[in-house]
Design a protein that fits this description.
six-stranded parallel sheet; 8 strands
Length: about 260
């Protein structure tokens, strides 16, 4: 799959089918691989945290799961497929992994949620191999972290899905992947909560119009206000500044972005 850059951050646009195929391909490789999602919050954080920007560039697949990223890319001249959120992508991706015989381990989210999500996946997807689950509320260093890693290593999953929230899940993977016996590390945020039914799904009409951020803001106004109100505005300003810079560079009659292959 071809990569492009958005405000200096690598993304990998693709359809749901293309992303599912790529995930299964990465899970079947002998080397360790990384999958991360790209939304406005992630791009903003990566512009502030050098190590996170490096993680984006190091990742093998950076799928687009935010409507703001799609809008920003289109303003800069890219024509990319619609976003793929974990709420929508997760089920077919897991089904594709099951069809290829790959195993999974679910790590993260509140106590009991990953186990509930595993039960839902096992009931809905024939042949899915979920080797184990563990909540995300453990000490990320020291004996407790060592015990979590030892438990994963005993089971040796092909795919480790990590849902600790951004940027904690990315930091945990970078700090621990060399000690973990898994092939593919996939950051999934709050996916288990969606799959378990703990967090309600956004109404389809809002999702189709790029308003899932507003739905989440209404659900959790205190926690999400800074991310969505300030964050979305800051992102749009940066995109418009980049659009103006590209317009000046291309000349008065052309606003065009050249896809950069990474």
């Amino acid at each position: 799959m071809e990569n492009i850059e958005l405000l200096g951050i690598k993304i990998t646009p693709g359809t749901q089918e293309e992303i599912c195929r790529e995930i299964a391909c990465l899970a079947g490789q002998k080397r360790q691989s990384f999958i991360i999602d790209a939304n406005v919050h992630g791009v903003n954080l990566a512009r502030q945290l050098a190590w996170l920007a490096e993680f984006y560039h190091r990742a093998d697949l950076v799928y687009v799961d935010g409507a703001g990223v799609v809008l920003g890319a289109r303003l800069l001249g890219y024509h990319i497929p619609p976003r793929q959120t974990m709420a929508d992508l997760g089920w077919p991706a897991v089904a594709h992994l099951a069809d290829k015989g790959h195993s999974l381990y679910l790590l993260g989210n509140p106590q009991g949620v990953a186990a509930q999500a595993a039960e839902k996946l096992e009931a809905a997807i024939p042949g899915v191999k979920i080797l184990g689950t563990h909540h995300g509320f453990f000490q990320k260093t020291g004996p407790e972290n060592d015990a979590v890693i030892a438990r994963i290593n005993r089971l040796r999953p092909d795919v480790l899905m990590v849902g600790l929230g951004m940027p904690l899940e990315q930091r945990w993977i970078l700090d621990n992947y060399a000690r973990v016996d898994a092939r593919l590390f996939w950051t999934v945020g709050a996916a288990f909560q969606y799959w378990a039914g703990v967090i309600p799904r956004c109404p389809r009409w809002m999702a189709e119009h790029g308003l899932e951020w507003l739905f989440r803001l209404l659900l959790e106004p205190r926690r999400m206000a800074k991310r969505y109100l300030w964050g979305n505005a800051a992102f749009l300003i940066k995109v418009l500044q980049e659009r103006r810079r590209l317009a000046w560079a291309a000349g008065p009659h052309a606003v065009k972005t050249v896809v950069k292959k990474l």
